[in-house]
Amino acid sequence: MCIRDRKYALAHDVLLLQAAGNSHKDIDATPYFPTGRDRKGVKYENYMRVGASDIAGAPAGMSNYGRNEVDVFAPGVDIRSTTVGNTYMYADGTSVACPVASGVAAIIRAYFPKLKAREVKEILVKSCRRSDALGGMCRGGGVIDAFEAVKLASTY
Asked: How far apart are CA 8 and CA 130, in angstroms?
């Protein structure tokens, strides 16, 4: 996704979510592209990165992390999904965690259509289920929580 597309999304109040990546790196220290920043390094307010957590709420072994560059974690280990041939499979990674977060964002936008993309992002980050294991690994300090997000959104 190029900067022009991100600017277009910002101008049209679209929340963009990106998988944080599966290299088990601190992407605060090691750049991971694409980024949610403009050419001057300013972070887009409508852009989120999502890491993968396991069932216990700890970071998945493969997930990238970063207190500044990753906003939230979402379930991303042993996620059952459809696959080619009309069958099912289990998958791990931030690319299966990101759709979980996108789904929660979609619920918030559907039930609270007056909220702006930046407000939905703020809600998702603030309403995380806190985890000691994730405390320093993302901005929200935990795993996305749909119930808490809806409760918080109702106060905006």
From this structure: 33
